[in-house]
Specification:
By secondary structure, the chain is α/β, with parallel strands linked by helices. The chain has helices at 15-22, 39-52, 62-67, 77-96, 110-119, 134-140, 145-150, 181-194; strands at residues 27-32, 57-61, 100-104, 125-131, 172-175. It has a single domain (22-92, 111-194), classed as Rossmann fold, CATH 3.40.50. It contains 8 helices and 5 strands. Strands 2-3-1-4-5 form a 5-stranded parallel beta sheet, sandwiched between helices. It is globular and about 55 Å long. The mean pLDDT is 91.
Length: 198
């Protein structure tokens, strides 16, 4: 049941106050791609580089979010939609606090990613397609998930028994079969500089 009698509360500090203090602009880097494509690895390298440069960044990782905030959700299309909607709303709060948010979620459906772009409607949503074919991801398989999915132990697994809809016009496409995680991270940092986020 939807909440009623709810009124948004504006704090004393505005987004621009945080941004002036942190000397950066709050934004959301939305890494999307198949499991094993390299999303979390690249996000972690970017976060470390930003931190070492005196910036404030936080990684929201798919598995970590499902341990707490979204532990009530499964992997049906409806639950995936709600998972991404919640992350979009949390990301917006971080962004309004002047933080650079790096999200690492498969987020397989364009519609759901477009919804988040609408929530973050001020040009501070940067979609990054971390591209790797299924065969490459299967070879990497850091969590052993593809093996389980192919054995029928994981239903609705993206890339095997559930679809992945790649972005049509992301702000950045990274092909992790062609470059190292460090090279990919550098391209993300270059994007942030070109958009005058940092």
């Amino acid at each position: 049941m939807a909440s009623t009698n709810v009124v948004w509360s504006d704090g004393y500090l505005k987004a621009e106050d945080f941004e002036r203090y942190y000397k950066q602009k709050g934004c959301v880097l939305w890494f999307t791609g198949l499991s094993g494509s390299g999303k979390s690895t690249i996000a972690a390298i970017v976060q470390r580089s930003l931190f070492e440069g005196g910036h404030h960044a936080f990684v929201l990782d798919g598995d970590n979010i499902r341990h707490g905030l979204n532990r009530d959700l499964g992997f049906s299309p409806e639950d995936r939609e709600e998972n991404i909607r919640r992350i979009g709303e949390v990301s917006k709060l971080f962004r309004e606090a002047g933080i650079i948010v790096l999200t690492a979620f498969i987020s397989p459906y364009r519609k759901d990613r477009d919804t988040v772009r609408t929530i973050l409607d001020d040009g501070r949503f940067l979609e990054i397609h971390v591209q790797a074919d299924v065969e490459t991801c299967k070879k990497r398989d850091p969590k052993g998930l593809y093996e389980k999915a192919l054995a029928g132990k994981i239903p609705e697994f993206t890339g095997i028994s559930a679809p992945y809809e790649p972005p049509l016009s992301p702000e950045l496409t990274i092909d992790t079969t062609m470059e190292s995680p460090e090279e990919s991270a550098q391209r993300v940092l270059d994007l942030l500089r070109s958009r005058e986020i940092i």
